[in-house]
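Action item from last week, closing it out:
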Amino acid sequence: MNPLGQAGSFLVKVVFDLYVFVILLRLLSMYVYANQFNPVTQFIMRATRYPCAFLRRITPKWHNVDLGIIFYVIVLEMFKLFLLMVLTGHLPQLLGLFVWGLGETIAQVLNLVSYLIIVAIVLSWIMLAKPGVSPVLSIFNQLADPFLAPARRLIPALGGLDFSPVIVLIVIQLLVILVASPIATAGMRLCFG
């Protein structure tokens, strides 16, 4: 691929991945009933207001999970993969694109949870050095807590050290390897085969 094609692929991937992360943050903040007065939550809600409001009207909710947003993320991933394949000179098959997009969506969700946990840990270290309640720290803790709570119940803090983030990050990487990657690989094979 020539440098212009590489630059185009890079831009498509970065723009779509950042937008998908913001959409997934909205989905997660709705799931955990994040503080609506937090500036971070307000930014997420404003940045995703129009497509999500439309999708809420036409799709149902299931256990406080907005299925329309999940469908939207899968469609965004499919469109990103379609653009990337077109930039490389290939036209994908629709079924392969769907399966590949589903695998990429699962990977994006798992990566987002990893990033949330890592950012929450780093921010908590920074806040130890500089005490005070930060709206950024509080929202990241609120978003990471549902994933850390089960591990904290299994492995309590030992000597004041919390090992639950390490356990959760290991489980997330195993899920990426055992679930997301095989689905994405199967979709890739369908697209190119």
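Closing note: Residues 94-129 form the longest helix (36 residues).
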